[in-house]
UniProtKB/TrEMBL annotation:
Encoding gene, per UniProt annotation: LOC115884579
Pfam families, sorted: RVT_1
Reverse transcriptase domain segment(s): 13-110
Protein name (database record): Uncharacterized protein LOC115884579
Compositional bias segments (type: Basic and acidic residues): 245-260
Comp. bias (Polar residues): 261-276
Coiled-coil intervals: none
Database matches in InterPro entries: DNA/RNA_pol_sf, Rev_trsase/Diguanyl_cyclase, RT_dom
Organism: Sitophilus oryzae
Length: 276
């Protein structure tokens, strides 16, 4: 797979900069199209396949910002490369070198040169477990509160933390097991049961009327897939969903794809039949 470069820039206001940067026709190729820049709130992420291309985009970004009396925060700006082997990426803006990092937190997730979905999920589970621990005495152990009310609190406060970004995250056997273990720990606490009671997980879920968290996440993925498929073909989510990175795949077992997390072989064949 072609190595990619990624740059995160924080700034005050953004409007026409996206069009100016995209007009360079530089970015990360996804089939016949390119993704050069994506934005969320006051953050922007710039993509390129080479260091020179990323420097050109950053320079154009800075020029347009200056023309519109906008400021680029070089202290908050970071660069990161995604490649099998470490790659240097020296970027300069305002005569200052942009710090290159191997990992940083962006929009609630840990971005790293070597992506590890289990590590990212473990951080979310730790946060959910800490929240559940704060509710143990006041909510879970409250004898005067109905169990279905406790389950609603779990679905509202705990499960969203564990399943943050589950619609777009690839799942492996390890991450599925981690989610199920974390969920059952909370549900058993709600029902006042422990593993010593030798009650099956399926029985606990039936008593709580809670769907398996992995199946629940699979439904969310299917809903997100249908939502993106209804978008215009020029929208970035649609391009990222249907596009395929250029280059050759490294030897060995291929990485887990997002579609593999919720789509079986029979479903994929059925989908291709409908598309044809």
């Amino acid at each position: 797979m072609t190595q990619g470069y990624f740059l995160v820039v924080s700034y005050s206001v953004m409007d026409r900069i996206i069009e100016e940067v995209s007009s360079l026709n530089i970015g990360y190729r996804m089939g016949q199209k390119r993704i050069s820049m994506v934005c969320y709130a006051d953050d922007a992420a710039i993509f390129a396949e080479t260091e020179d291309d990323l420097q050109k985009q950053l320079h154009r970004f800075y020029q347009v910002s200056q023309a519109m009396n906008m400021t680029v925060s070089t202290e908050k700006t970071k660069s990161i490369t995604f490649a099998k082997d470490p790659v240097r990426c020296k970027l300069v803006v305002q005569d200052k070198i942009i710090e290159q990092v191997s990992q940083f937190k962006y929009l609630g997730m840990d971005l790293s040169s070597h992506h590890d979905p289990a590590k990212d999920l473990r951080s979310q589970i730790n946060k959910a477990t800490a929240m559940s621990g704060c509710l143990r005495q006041t909510i879970w152990a409250n004898e005067y509160m109905r169990w279905d009310s406790k389950v609603k609190i779990y679905k509202t406060c705990i499960r969203p933390i564990m399943t943050y970004r589950i619609e777009t995250r690839e799942e492996t056997h390890k991450t599925k097991s981690m989610l199920r273990v974390a969920e059952m720990k909370t549900l058993r606490t709600i029902m006042g049961k422990t593993r010593r009671d030798r009650i099956k997980n399926t029985d606990i879920r039936e008593q709580c009327e809670v769907q398996d968290i992995v199946r629940w996440g699979r439904q969310r993925k299917r809903g997100w897939y249908a939502h993106v498929r209804r978008m215009d073909e020029r929208r970035l989510p649609r391009i990222a969903l249907e596009g395929k990175p250029t280059g050759k795949r490294e030897p060995g077992r291929p990485p887990k794809r997002w579609k593999d997390s919720w789509q079986s072989t029979s479903q994929e064949l059925l989908q291709r039949t409908h598309q044809n």
